[in-house]
Amino acid sequence: MKSLLSKLSYPFGFNIVNAIFPLLTLPIVFRAFDQDVYGEYVLVNVLYQLTISLFSLVLMQYFIREYTKCQFSQDENENNIFGDFLIVQILAMFLVFAFFLMLYLVFNIVSDVNSTVALSFLIPIISVSINFEWYFFAVQKYKILFYRNIAIKSVVFLLVFLFVESNADLALYAYLMTCSFAIVNLVTFIHIYPMIKIKKFDFYVLKKNIFGVRYFFTNSIVGAGYQYGDQLIVSILLSKFDLVSLNILKQLVGILAMVPSTVCRFIMPQAIVSYQKGLSDVFHRQFDKKYAVIIIVLAIFSLLFSPYFILFLTGQGYTFPFIDITICTLLFLVMSVSIFIDTQYSIPQHLEVITTKANILVFLSVLITIYFSVTYLGYKGALISVFIAELLGVTFMVFAHARIKKSSG
Fold it and tell me: Where are the domains of the chain?
């Protein structure tokens, strides 16, 4: 366990910086902006995050798996892989732009989207084509990512502190944040650029990559639907204040989920290799119980300290009852199990179809319950709806893998 935690120090640091930075800006944000004004930024950011999760981040796990297989089998030139994946990411950029534009047009009708803020998000959308973070995850070079994020986000934090002072600075705040998203991608591309070799266009290779990512993409569609759909529904049915409240709580869940996501992403290459070598039982005996201990300890920590953490960041403007924190913690626990099953069981065995079916079940459950839960329970109804749906999805994944193991054993 000590050895594992030592190796995870930079991955944790990397994800802590990513998760904490938006929350650390909240005291500055609430000093400068009215709640409804900040809600304008939150809405556009949700539209952007939804789009990125559909057409960009979905590629990351696929790229990690394919690159790890290439390294293990040594049957392809890795420089060719970089070039092939760059072409896929360029195509993804156009899809990201088109989908974001569609969301903007739709929500500009129902929720009055701030056009200036929306325009600023075109900067990171363009940078989607040069996002090579997946390589650093695959080879576990988190030290580079950690110091990159520390440097970029520290500069942005200082600029926000110095220049964001009132509602009139909302556009400035949006451009500072979105430029930081793009610079993150640019730095990784500069590091990788000498390794990229773009060979003669090969339609077969492109088709293979598009076909290979299909389950990841399907999972992303249904996953993003319930991950961000609740906030979009709240933005339509309730006030900007309620949207910001839900966003803060979901950021809390995101910070908690950072730990299982980091652990799972870090050990996923080992899981893939263990299945290829026929040593999966050894791998799971080594990691499953340790993972359970980590998330249980973190859940207890959340129940004890999250209320004080949120109060410190937001002041008296946003106070949440203990039931809200409890729902967030339960949601975190279920999500942690789902992440582990997907990354350590499904992906290494090419059984993404199980996650796809589970995500469809979750999506349908949220779709059926979200309107009534938000209407009668407010923003916390969205959290309850997602928790119940995630629980159904995890139950399905457990039984699906158990059935496959039983039939093959």
Answer: 14-212, 214-409
